[in-house]
């Protein structure tokens, strides 16, 4: 049904992506293991206290009857790449924070502590999948191939969106808390509509697509605070009753600016899923391997007609909400230390070292690669040209708008009244 | 051209059917729009004809409907959203104002939002609370949206198709009072030949006073023009409120020297204020009298038994014409008196 000439519906070329990275995680469109049970709507509905964890805080790998199968292709080389991803995005985050402190960025929301949640989930995606995120998913953006200046353009205050959403298969960041969850559902409904070949197709939610060939899926990222928003609840309802191919990935980082998660919910967030009739799974969000496993399972369910899944990735925001925040006003250093001991990068490094897959030289190589990315980021941001005044009026409408054009022209005449550009002219 | 006699609701239905036929990426989203055909029957029979994937009954959540339409737009779909009643659109306000209206600008044109948001509007039908609102000013005030309102069955069909074909988001107001008004409709007008959606129509020419209005009050204006003794009244159907056709209105006022704006929404910062300000700026030297607004009062929409005191009618329009002709004094409201008296007390 979609027009092949419509740029909004065209498929992303794989050429723009690092295929070696994709293939590191199996390379297939879908990562269903041969031994996995078929996706079931019952699966994961009762989380109990069973937080999924494959690699503990000390780097020890624990077998898991359900989830090992979802990462059986992840060998040492692949795990090293996940480790490198996390080191790189942590370095990007450090550099961006410094750039903000030095006046190159207006604001920056750090991701420190959430590297595993973002890398593990983003590496589960196929290039054709689409991402609707909040404003802290720099790790996800990195995996989608968004680099350098594009990652920081918005934070420098030069534009409203740093990248082409269709190129990156990732919507611009969302500041209105939770609004993007609905956009993800709409995109997923569009996938269902595209699947229809019969003009008199089945209604959404009829299950008519169950068993169909694997197709694209959508993932929406939001935080623990967003689960209190009506839009997120509405997204759960719409996705569930329509069996939409979407994954709701909640990074429970414990804090919504100064408000603890206990103010958002009396029960573990994962329990929200049950009431909406979708599977929920709680995962150690600082365990990149476990996050990869649960996200692959959820995406597989989405692609094969099983509908939405809610993932609660339990993690911690170790930095401030943004560079304008002061977390010492609302939480203790003891709490930060508790989570530092559960660092997502350290545990994979420890695991790889114990396996003999990482040594000092290896760590140094990864750090050097991360430093190179940071240097590229710094060079990129300082080379971003300031926008010019006509951009104020640009693209407000898709079709001609004579009234706004006249308003712009009047402002141009006003600017022309100044004698020099130093005087404020154009 | 083949015309049929249709109600305005049937004209809308014909427009939707044509749009669904013309573009397989047009989808309808709303509450009760499927088997029921909408509470006003505007989507009657469309789900049967086009299937439940294109005429989609949604869960009861207006923000959810808009958010879904946004995601579908990312995917290349052109959604026509039905908001069941005007008073129900407020819960979708963020998705419309923060998301739909801004998306094209913030993505520098990469992500258009070709949504049409249909909203039954205004009162005069003895409806329950929250079923008679005139919220147009909120949307006119929002950059990135276009806002239109129709006054007759032919426009209902044609302008709706134009709105759906437009790559910008369009708020499409359907006056509830007019759903059952009949007229001749050619449902297959070639949109290339149709007047632009944003162009006003002079529906009744006149020499002495310009009455500018839209929606159900076009009929009020025409009734007043026919009833009024001793002056010739020109009635303009604005059709589009954002952008609005200032050229058409100022051209008329330069001839008549007098302007009356009629709308049902509250006066304060209403669309009439913008029209009066612009006309005053552009043809100050042509004005024989200050422009006058006939509007709903600055009150919550009153209970049905009182709406006759709120909704503009023929008598109030004729009174305004009396005012701009100098036959009765301009009645400057009591606010200025209160301010004066407050000032004296302070002194």
Automatic annotation (TrEMBL), chain A:
Origin: domain of life: Bacteria
Residues covered by region (Disordered): 1-51
E.C. code: 1.2.4.1
SUPFAM superfamilies membership: Thiamin diphosphate-binding fold (THDP-binding)
Keywords, ordered alphabetically: Oxidoreductase, Pyruvate, Thiamine pyrophosphate
Catalytic class of the enzyme: oxidoreductase
GO terms for MF: pyruvate dehydrogenase (acetyl-transferring) activity
Chain ranges of the Dehydrogenase E1 component domain: 85-372
Species for this entry: Isoptericola halotolerans
NCBIfam families, per the entry: PDH_E1_alph_x (TIGR03181)
The protein's name: Pyruvate dehydrogenase E1 component alpha subunit
Named cofactor requirement(s): thiamine diphosphate
Organism lineage: Bacteria, Bacillati, Actinomycetota, Actinomycetes, Micrococcales
TrEMBL record, chain B:
SMART domains for the chain: Transket_pyr
Pfam families xrefs: Transket_pyr, Transketolase_C
Keyword Cell wall biogenesis/degradation: no
GO molecular function: pyruvate dehydrogenase (acetyl-transferring) activity
Cofactor(s) demanded: thiamine diphosphate
Keyword Transcription: no
Residue ranges annotated for the Transketolase-like pyrimidine-binding domain, each copy included: 6-181
EC number: 1.2.4.4
Annotated coiled-coil segments of the chain: none
Keywords: Oxidoreductase, Pyruvate
Domain of life: Bacteria
Name of the protein this chain belongs to: 3-methyl-2-oxobutanoate dehydrogenase (2-methylpropanoyl-transferring)
Species assigned in the record: Isoptericola halotolerans
């Amino acid at each position: 049904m979609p027009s092949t000439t419509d740029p909004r519906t065209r498929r992303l070329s794989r050429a723009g992506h690092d295929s070696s990275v994709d293939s590191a995680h199996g390379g297939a469109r879908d990562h269903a293991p041969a031994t996995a049970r078929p996706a079931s709507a019952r699966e994961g509905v009762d989380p109990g206290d069973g937080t999924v964890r494959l690699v503990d805080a000390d780097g020890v790998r624990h077998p898991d009857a359900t989830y090992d199968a979802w990462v059986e292709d992840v060998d040492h080389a692949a795990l090293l790449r996940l480790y490198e991803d996390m080191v790189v995005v942590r370095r990007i985050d450090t550099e961006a924070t410094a750039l903000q402190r030095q006046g190159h960025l207006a604001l920056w929301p750090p991701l420190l502590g959430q590297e595993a949640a973002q890398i593990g989930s983003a590496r589960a995606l196929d290039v054709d999948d689409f991402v609707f995120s909040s404003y802290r998913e720099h790790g996800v953006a990195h995996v989608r191939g968004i680099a350098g200046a594009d990652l920081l353009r918005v934070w420098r205050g030069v534009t409203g969106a740093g990248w082409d959403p269709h190129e990156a298969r990732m919507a611009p960041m969302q500041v209105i808390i939770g609004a993007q969850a609905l956009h993800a559902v709409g995109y997923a409904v569009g996938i269902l509509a595209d699947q229809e070949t019969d003009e008199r197709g089945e209604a959404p939610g009829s299950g008519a697509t169950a068993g169909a060939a694997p197709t694209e899926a959508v993932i929406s990222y939001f935080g623990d605070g967003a689960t209190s928003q009506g839009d997120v609840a509405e997204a759960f309802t719409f996705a569930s009753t329509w069996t939409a191919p979407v994954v709701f990935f909640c990074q429970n980082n414990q804090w919504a600016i100064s408000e603890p998660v206990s103010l958002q919910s009396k029960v573990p967030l994962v329990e929200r899923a049950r009431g909406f009739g979708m599977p929920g799974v709680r995962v150690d969000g600082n365990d990149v391997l476990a996050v990869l496993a649960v996200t692959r399972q959820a995406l597989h369910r989405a692609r094969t007609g099983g509908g939405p899944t809610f993932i609660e990735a339990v993690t911690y925001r170790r930095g401030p909400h943004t560079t304008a925040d002061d977390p010492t006003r609302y939480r203790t250093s003891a709490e930060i230390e508790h989570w530092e001991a559960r660092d997502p990068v350290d545990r994979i490094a420890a695991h790889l070292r114990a396996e003999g897959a990482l040594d000092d030289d290896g760590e140094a190589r990864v750090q050097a690669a991360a430093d190179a990315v940071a240097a590229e980021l710094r060079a990129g941001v300082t080379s971003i040209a300031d926008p010019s005044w006509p951009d104020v009026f640009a693209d407000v409408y898709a079709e001609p708008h004579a009234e706004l054009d006249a308003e712009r022209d009047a402002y141009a005449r006003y600017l022309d009244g100044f004698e020099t550009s130093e005087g404020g002219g154009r | 051209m083949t015309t049929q006699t249709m109600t305005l609701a049937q004209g809308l239905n014909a427009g939707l059917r044509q749009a669904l036929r013309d573009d397989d990426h047009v989808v309808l989203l709303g509450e009760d729009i499927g088997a029921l055909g909408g509470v006003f029957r505007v989507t009657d029979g469309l789900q049967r004809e086009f299937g439940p994937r294109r005429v989609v009954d949604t869960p009861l959540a207006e923000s959810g409907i808009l958010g879904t339409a946004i995601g579908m737009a990312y995917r290349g779909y052109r959604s026509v959203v039905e908001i069941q009643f005007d008073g129900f659109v407020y819960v979708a306000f963020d998705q419309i104002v923060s998301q739909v209206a801004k998306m094209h600008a913030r993505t520098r044109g990469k992500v258009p939002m070709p949504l049409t948001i249909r909203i039954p509007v205004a009162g005069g039908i003895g409806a329950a609370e929250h079923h008679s609102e005139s919220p147009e000013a909120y949307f006119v005030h929002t950059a990135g949206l276009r806002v239109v309102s129709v006054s007759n069955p032919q426009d209902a069909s044609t302008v709706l198709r134009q709105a759906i074909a437009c790559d910008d988001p369009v708020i499409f107001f359907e006056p509830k009072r007019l759903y059952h008004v009949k007229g001749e409709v050619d449902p297959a007008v070639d949109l290339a030949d149709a007047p632009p959606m944003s162009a006003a129509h002079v529906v009744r020419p006149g020499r002495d006073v310009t009455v500018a209005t839209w929606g159900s009050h076009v009929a009020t204006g025409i009734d007043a023009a026919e009833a009024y003794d001793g002056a010739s009244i020109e009635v303009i159907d604005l059709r589009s409120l954002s952008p609005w056709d200032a050229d058409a209105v100022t051209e008329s006022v330069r001839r008549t020297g007098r302007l009356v704006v009629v709308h049902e929404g509250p006066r304060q910062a209403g669309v009439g204020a913008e029209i009066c300000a612009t006309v005053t700026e552009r043809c100050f030297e042509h004005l024989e009298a200050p422009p006058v607004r006939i509007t709903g009062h600055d009150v919550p929409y009153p209970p049905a038994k009182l709406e006759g005191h709120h909704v503009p009618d023929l008598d109030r329009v004729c009174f305004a014409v009396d005012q701009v002709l100098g036959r009765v004094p301009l009645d400057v409201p009591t606010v200025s008196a209160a301010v004066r008296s407050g000032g004296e007390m302070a002194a």
